[in-house]
Amino acid sequence: MTAKSERGRRLAWPPATVPIRVVGLGLLLWAIASEVTPGSTGRHLVTWVLTAAIVPAWLAWTIAPDAARARKIAIFCWIAAVGGVLTVYAPMGLAVVGSAAIGAGSSFEFVLALAISALGPAALAIAALAAGRPASLMLGGVAAALAGLVLGAGRRDTAERARQEMQLAVEHERAELEHARADVLAERNRLARELHDVLAHTLGALSVQLEAIGAQLDGRASTDEWLREGLRRTRSLATDGLADARRAIRALRDDALPLRSQLEKLCELSGARLAVSGDSRELAPEAALALYRVAQESLTNVTKHAPGAQVDVRLGYEPAAVSLQVENGAGTGEPGALAATGAGYGLDGIRERIRLLGGDVAAGPRGDGWRVEARLPG
Q: What is the DSSP string of 92-160?
């Protein structure tokens, strides 16, 4: 039996029916008591013994509606058989036979439910013959069993349809989510194309123009050296901007960003030392780009506020997270010319970027220098 059919059986008897079963047992005992006069011998004693034999099984069915399959089979077989024998001494035994058939029909496939339900009429026929009662009593047992089986099977079919409708609703919702995700990815690809066309092409053309101007100036001996240096820096910024634009485009397209190699290039350009611990693995594009931005912003701040300081960048791959630390010592000179530039929101920006991905950022003084640490799950 599959897990789906097991869930279908559980839906057939929801917890709301427990009070109904308790009330049903009470009414059954009351009806039998009204039919059979008190007595401690003969027919009276047998009736009450059979009634008492039903109660534990009925309560087990009531208390544990989701019991194991074998246990439920035993419970319904016992109720059906004892109910059939009880019918010979009290007509309300037919209600017991019908109840066992309802439970079997609600809980099991039709063939097994039919076999369990047939125990009631069979036990009734054997008990009737043994007690010398007319065999026609078996017709009532058959009718009660069939009626209960039809009701139980109907309840099981209703529960199965409800389960299938719920499954279809879940699948429909999942399909809608996938469709929405596809729309988001399509929009991200569109933005990536726009970024490429606007930024990458523009920065590329700017870099070419700067190269051409630099070549013209290199041919003139009278050109001031500061102008040459300014052009070289401007050309470098344009090249870096082009690389940044390409990284952003790769992240938008969900292309994996080689974080380790990118950090190696960044540290080489800035003179920082890079240390990597743990087993390197591919990160989600957004996570890799966010950590790269943390390193980039931190190294930029060191250049601004602590020029000449030694910087250590540590990338750590942990089992369930990835961390990046950027720590610098005291600078060897005065703050750089760019120290007063910017709006002062760089650290806030990387905090927001990391927190959107479920991570956290800690930044503050460390000895004579400064330390920034970012951690992302993944």
A: THHHHHHHHHHHHHHHS-HHHHHHHHHHHHHHHHHHHHHHT--TTHHHHHHHHHHHHHHHHHHHHHHHH
Tens-digit pLDDT profile for residues 149-192? 999 888 888 888 888 889 898 888 888 888 887 777 777 666 66
- Give residue-wise pLDDT tens across range 196-243: 555 655 665 566 666 666 666 666 655 567 676 667 777 676 776 666
Cβ-in-10-Å burial (0-12, 13-18, 19+) of 171 comes to: exposed
Q: What are phi and psi of 334, to 5 degrees?
A: -75, 155
DSSP at 332? S
CA 25 to chain centroid: 42
Please, what is the average pLDDT of the chain? 78
Q: How many CB atoms lie within 10 A of CB 320?
A: 6
Angle between helices 93-107 and 18-35 (to 10 degrees): 160
CB 374 within 8 A of CB 351: no
With beta carbons less than 8 A apart as the criterion, state whether 308 and 332 touch: yes
CA–CA separation, 89 vs 144, rounded Å? 16
Q: To which residue do tokens 């059939």 refer?
A: 84
Residue 283 has pLDDT above 90, yes or no: no
What domains appear along the chain, each with residue ranges and CATH number? 1-255 (no CATH), 256-378 (3.30.565.10)
The lowest-confidence range among 42-56, 90-104, 193-207 is 193-207
For residue 261, give Cα distances in angstroms to 24, 264, 274, 322, 324.
74, 5, 11, 16, 14
Identify each DSSP E strand in the chain by its residue range. Answer: 273-277, 311-317, 321-328, 360-366, 369-377
Integer CA distances (angstroms), 304 to 173, 334, 342, 351, in order: 51, 9, 10, 20
CA gap 341, 344 in Å, rounded: 8
Taking CA atoms, 253 is separated from 184, 187, 277, in Å, by 11, 10, 28
Look at the pTM and tell me if it is higher than 0.85: no
Q: What is the pLDDT of residues 104-134, one digit of tens each?
A: 888 888 899 999 999 989 999 888 888 778 7
Nearest to 61 by CA among 77, 45, 46, 47: 77
Phi then psi for 272, rounded to 5 degrees? -90, 160
